[in-house]
Structure formats: C-alpha cells, structure tokens
Amino acid sequence: MGARRVWRVLYTRAMTHSSRPVTLITGATGGIGAALAHVLHRHSLVLQGRDLGRVAALCAELPDARPLVMDLSRPASFAELLEEAGLERVTNVVHNAGVVELGNVAEQSHEIWTHTLAVNVVAPAELTGLLLPRVRAERGNVVFVNSGAGLTANAGWGSYAASKFALRALADALRAEEAQHGVRVTSVYPGRTDTGMQQKVVGQEGGEYRGDAFIRPETVAEAVRYVLEAPRDAVVTDLTVRPGPR
C-alpha cells in the first residue's frame, strides 16, 4: 500500500469518532510522545512525525489516530500541511517534540543554534498560532513539554536551555492572552526520562546510560493526561516531574 493510500485509510478511520476530544501530539513516534499516544488512546489523536512509515505504524496500534507528517525545522510549511490535513477540530495541542545538542557557547555553531531554536521554539509558536481558532472553539488546552533545562541553565547546555527558557516565556505569554478565550496553557518540566534523546545526552556527557535511574515515559504521559483532563475550574500552569527516590 502506497504512502498516500496509508494516510487516507488512517484518516478516514479516525474521522468516524467525532465526539472525542481531538489531541494533536508532536514528536509522537518515540519516547514521551509515543507513551502519550498510548495513554491518551481514548482521544481522537493526530500524531506528528517526520517519517510517514513510523507515524503510520503507531497509528495502526491505536483505535482512533491519524498521521501528520511534518518537518518541525520548517515552520513556513505548516500552514499548507495543516490545510492538506483537513483538521476540522482540535481540542488539545501537546508540544512534545524537541532536539538537543550539548556544547559550550564558545564552541557551538550558529547552525546548531538556529536548528535548536527553530524546532524547540519557533515550531511550537507557529503551530499554536495556526491551531488556536480550533482550540478556542473547543475551550481546550495547549501543553508544552518543557524540561528541567527550562528552569536552570548549566554549562554545556546553553543552546538547549535558551530554547527551553524561551518556550516557558511563550507558554506564560500565551496563557495570559488566551484565558479570555477559555484556553488553558500548561508547561510540564520532566526531569531525566528514559528516552532515546536521554541516551544521546548521556552519550554526549560521556556517562554510562542507566535507564532504570530515570523517569519512565509513561509516568510523564500520565502527568500530561491529568493536565488535559483536570476539572475546568482550575488550570495547572506549571508542573515539575522529577525522578523519585530509588
């Protein structure tokens, strides 16, 4: 079955459950994103990834999911891709995707800075802006999966921490702007989580990877689910999740 045919089948199947909340998750094919997709399986899901094969495989595991193939480093393409996707409803947007490249400020190239800021900050801002009319109509949620690096900056983490501090500012501004429209905005700050990205980070740090010392992706996903499904008389503005005692 060709890529376009796969997309059409999954899209048609997902459109049959219009009463469910529609939740768009970026970076859905691995780590926290994939865990979120499974934890939120009762939602109608829109799962973003760069590779149609991987996104389609994940969608096939879920009762109500459709793929959204999008390169987050190219925000100028988002409007056209969303129009092609034909998303009539979006209740929640969970910005989970991110990139990291460790290195001292004196050593990192402007290409690394540009790519990091494009994916981690510009992409969430652009995607949110395009989807806000739909989210407002649903009185939904925008969740930014941030990082401990969005609260504290350490040596070697300059570009990543800068992007996450900016993401926190984006969330705070959006929350103030969208309260009048009934949109809730939350930043979630997971500590070290057992993901492929964390394996890369530990490798760059020169350490030995021990996944059992970190938070499980499913635990972070459950925290996000609480944020999305919390009673409407409150908003969880900031939620920090740290590894528990071992």
TrEMBL record:
Q: Which GO terms describe its molecular function?
A: oxidoreductase activity
Q: Which residues form the signal peptide?
A: none
Q: Which domain of life is it from?
A: Bacteria
**SMART domains cross-referenced by the UniProt entry:** PKS_KR
Which keywords, in A-to-Z order, does the entry hold?
A: Oxidoreductase
CC annotations in GO = membrane
PROSITE patterns linked: ADH_SHORT
Q: Where does the Ketoreductase domain lie?
A: 21-193
Task: List the Pfam families hit by this protein, alphabetically.
Answer: adh_short
The UniProt family comment states: Belongs to the short-chain dehydrogenases/reductases (SDR) family.
> What's this protein's name?
Short chain dehydrogenase
Please report the organism this UniProt entry assigns to the protein: Deinococcus aquiradiocola
